[in-house]
Design a protein that fits this description.
The complex is a heterodimer.
Chain A: E1 4-9, E2 12-17, H1 22-28, E3 52-55, E4 62-63, E5 74-76, H2 80-96, H3 111-119, E6 135-136, E7 142-145, H4 154-163, E8 168-171, E9 178-181, H5 198-202, E10 208-210, H6 224-234
Parallel strand pairs in A: 1-5
Antiparallel strand pairs in A: 1-2, 3-4, 3-5, 6-7, 7-10, 8-9
Helix pairs in contact in A: 2-3
Chain B: H1 4-20, E1 24-28, H2 32-36, H3 39-52, E2 59-63, E3 76-79, E4 83-85, H4 93-98, E5 109-110, H5 115-118, H6 136-141, H7 146-154, H8 157-167, H9 179-188, E6 195-200, H10 209-216, H11 218-232, E7 236-241, H12 246-261, E8 277-282, H13 292-299, E9 323-327, H14 328-340, H15 342-346, E10 356-363, E11 369-374, H16 379-386, E12 396-401, E13 407-410, H17 420-425, E14 434-439, H18 444-458, H19 464-481, H20 487-503, H21 507-511, H22 514-533
Parallel strand pairs in B: 1-2, 6-7, 6-9, 7-8, 10-14
Antiparallel strand pairs in B: 1-3, 3-4, 4-5, 10-11, 12-13, 12-14
Helix pairs in contact in B: 7-11, 7-14, 8-9, 8-11, 10-11, 10-12, 11-14, 18-19, 18-22, 19-20, 20-22
Classes of the chains: A alpha+beta, B alpha/beta.
Chain lengths: 235, 549
């Protein structure tokens, strides 16, 4: 049996169970914390840093998706400092890849696009990298366009943790990091891919999409994920 | 009944008898720096020469580890005369053997009564140059493994931890976390197994302290690890060594086999109920694997990427079990603390930083090499007394401590005492012990650019600020050194520093802006000179003739 704790988020009194994260409790109380790499039903990796919050008494910012709540905690999610960092982080994502909304399959339904609006990014002050990235259309039903990838690793995690195939992983490091299928072979040649399309639907941007979809035509369906997680936990 | 003390005693006596047969002992440094300067050939030349003169029964020629004066390598130490020869070549062997018992060879002789040797205090590097790293007998004859037997036979694990806590030892990996507290946390954690990991993934540019410990004193390191395992109740351990240190890997593996043979590792260690199994794991070349959670991922066979803490490895580490991770130098201190007592150790150093610290002194300094000084020694003493000052009559400009995440300390702080708090107060850090001295020919913008290039290429790519931010920072610094930047770029650079420092996931990203921040703090005029006047004050950076404004 888990213990109930009380804490404050943005000076509002809230309660949660001690095995819940700050993000869980905030969402239960309709307090918005931006997230990019987090997805309910997958493990948390704390990679996008958008859910960083200030906790009184801690000298470092902490990721709301990984830190558990504690009795008497005082969390602040919307300080000027955090807002500035979030804008800079989203700007970094835009400057790193090739995000051209007007030709993107998820234009209007893209998490990166809506995040930019949400944290108040109106223009990019950082220079664009315009990197030369690859696109793999060898799979019979899906496409990976690495120009639009933000390296949230949701595809890697869903493939490993939910589907159990572990087709996706990361290659390279630093600014050269990119997602790869199997040991960096073509997706169409992958002997491990089951074609389940989970990776396509958890992808926050238009990096993974179904063939035959044109601009704005790709809608992602993620309902399966909480359902699958819940059914497995019941067992 | 088998008594390990008796066995150690027997080895000790045999060694003394063996050593007593010889009138002269010649130790040739077989550390990595001297080996690169062909010290192995010097060793065999000396052996041949001794045999040719029929002196092989009078003088022993052995590999003997490092004396720290790497600038003079290959070095040869003569005992009991305490003569040190530097820059020895194989064809000097004849003169060296001929001079035994008489006056030392003048052209090779290096005085040992100078501050380089007199001002150092050795705990980690005790007996430097006199222990053959490939023989456990040498270490046992020097009193080795007695601390382990003392801990196993006379102390409970809690007493060992208390002793370490009272000694005030702090982690030598860089952050300076109290070692006793860490041990206590792991000891309290519950788990079917517990692991001990020794972090030998030393990767800071210009740092080679841990390599020297692993190369020259592998058994001192093992003894510290085994005591640590006993204290926290661990039954398995890994020595994580970077692949770039093949000599360390070889000597540690040899040392582990020797220790197993003497029943100092394995099951029922030294006849007690304590079991501990230790293996060497070789890294694959990523700097970030020096970060503890990335190191654990690497041992588990995963991509070497850090993960957010908590949970800390003390609670959930390798394969989810409680894990103690300490740096090489931290473990190398343990034996001496158990042997001499915590009060002795606590009497060395400053109020908050106890003991000694090994530094790899490099850059433009006369006596570059490895030094060990008590905490609290000033930078001035280290650079000008021990290090012999700046060569070629140049002027001191800055000292870079703490590796790529450290900072540059200018002349006005030369009297700063070297300890964890003081270095942090001027925007640098202790780090693992790299100390790079720079003279007035160094461009500080270029230095910052060098370290950012390092961080950018060593970033694992997991979190956005470190992956993208360090790349942007490097680009701006590159523009500045080419005279293409504007003052707006400088403002953006400072904003990027702020974001990367406070939002990155692990220590690599969090400390990556430090070289920029500290050079901006003390050498801002150099940045301005590059941007506004298109001049590099040190004359390092080259600009296009038609500077773009």
């Amino acid at each position: 049996m888990s213990v109930v704790v009380t804490l404050k988020i943005n000076d509002i009194d809230v309660s949660g169970q001690e095995d819940e994260t700050i993000l869980d409790v905030a969402r239960e109380h309709d307090i918005y914390i931006p997230t990019m790499c987090h997805l309910d039903g997958l493990s948390s990796v704390g990679a996008c840093r958008l859910c960083l919050v200030e906790v009184k008494g801690m000298n470092r910012l902490v990721t709301a998706c990984t830190v558990k709540v504690a009795e008497g905690m005082e969390v602040y999610t919307e300080t000027e400092r955090l807002k500035k960092y979030r804008r800079m982080l989203v700007e970094m994502l835009f400057s790193e890849g090739n995000h051209i909304c007007s030709v993107c399959v998820v234009n209007g339904r893209c998490e990166l696009q809506s995040m930019a609006g949400r944290v108040g990014v109106q223009h990019i002050t950082l220079p664009y990298y315009n990197p030369l990235r690859t696109l793999d259309t060898t799979h019979e039903r899906f496409v990976i366009d690495r120009n639009r990838c933000i390296l949230c690793t949701r595809c890697v995690r869903v493939c490993d943790e939910i589907e159990g195939a572990h087709t996706w992983d990361l290659g390279g490091r630093g600014i050269e990091s990119h997602v790869v299928t199997d040991l960096n072979t073509f997706w169409g040649d992958s002997p491990t891919c089951t074609g389940c399309s989970k990776c396509v639907h958890v992808c926050p941007t238009g990096a993974l999409f179904e063939k035959g979809r044109s601009v704005t035509e790709m809608t992602k369906h993620r309902e399966f994920l909480p359902y699958l997680t819940m059914m497995r936990e019941k067992k | 009944m088998y008594l390990p003390e008796d066995e150690l005693q027997r080895i000790d006596e045999e060694e003394r008898l063996l050593k007593g047969q010889y009138k002269h002992h010649i130790h040739v440094c077989l550390g990595a720096n001297c080996l690169n300067a062909h010290s192995a050939q010097v060793l065999s030349a000396l052996e041949t020469e001794a045999k040719a003169r029929g002196l092989e029964k009078v003088c022993s020629v052995t590999g003997g580890g490092c004396r720290g004066l790497c600038v003079a390598g290959p070095t040869v130490t003569l005992e009991p005369d305490n003569v040190l020869y530097g820059k020895v070549q194989p064809n000097d062997a004849g003169d060296i053997i001929a001079s035994l018992g008489g006056e030392p060879v003048e052209r090779l002789n290096r005085p040992t009564d100078n501050p380089f040797f007199m001002r150092q205090q050795r705990i980690v590097r005790e007996m430097e140059g006199r222990l053959n790293p490939e023989r456990i007998e040498d270490y046992i004859a020097a009193g080795g493994y007695k601390s382990l037997l003392k801990a196993l036979n006379e102390m409970t694990p809690a007493e060992v931890i208390n002793e370490i806590t009272r000694s005030g030892l702090r982690g030598r990996g860089g952050a300076g976390y109290p070692t006793g507290l860490k041990w206590k946390t792991v000891a309290k954690a519950r788990g079917e197994h517990k692991y001990v990991i020794c972090n030998g993934d030393e990767g800071d540019p210009g740092a080679f302290m841990d390599r020297s410990v692993m190369d020259d004193f592998p058994h001192r390191l093992l003894e510290g690890i085994i005591i640590g395992a006993y204290a926290v109740g661990a039954d398995r351990g890994y020595l994580y060594v970077r692949a770039e240190y093949p000599l360390s890997v070889k000597r540690l593996q040899l040392a582990i086999r020797q220790a197993q043979k003497q029943n100092l590792l394995g099951n029922n260690i030294a006849g007690t109920a304590f079991n501990f199994d230790l293996q060497v794991r070789v890294g694959a070349g990523a700097y970030v694997c020096g970060e503890e959670t990335a190191l654990i991922a690497s041992i588990e066979g995963k991509r070497g990427q850090p993960r957010p803490r908590p949970p800390y490895p003390a609670e959930s580490g390798l394969w989810g079990y409680p894990t103690l991770i300490n740096n090489v130098e931290t473990f190398a201190n343990i034996g001496a603390i158990i042997r001499n007592g915590s009060a002795w150790y606590a009497s060395i150093g400053t109020e908050k930083s106890k003991g000694t610290k090994v530094f790899a002194l490099t850059g433009t300094v006369s006596h570059s090499g490895l030094i060990e000084v008590p905490m609290g020694t000033t930078l001035r003493e280290i650079i000008f007394d021990i290090g012999g000052g700046i060569p070629d009559g140049r002027k001191f400009k800055a000292a870079q401590t703490g590796g790529p995440g450290g900072g540059c300390i200018p002349e006005q702080y030369l009297d700063l005492s070297v300890d964890f708090e003081s270095l942090a107060s001027v925007g640098s850090m202790m780090g693992s012990g790299g100390l790079v001295i720079m003279d007035d020919r160094t461009c500080m913008v270029n230095v910052a650019k060098y370290f950012l290039e390092f961080c950018k290429s060593e970033s694992c790519g997991k979190c956005i600020p470190c992956r993208v931010g360090t790349a942007h920072m490097f680009d701006i610094l590159d523009k500045i050194t080419k005279g293409e930047a504007t003052l707006d770029d400088l403002t953006l650079l400072e904003e990027l520093c702020d974001t990367v420092k406070h939002t990155s996931l692990c220590g690599l990203g969090q400390s990556a802006p430090n070289p920029v921040l500290s050079t901006l703090r003390f050498f801002r005029d150099e940045y301005i000179a590059h941007i506004v006047d298109h001049v590099c004050p040190a004359g390092v950076c080259e600009f296009e003739k038609e500077a773009v404004r």
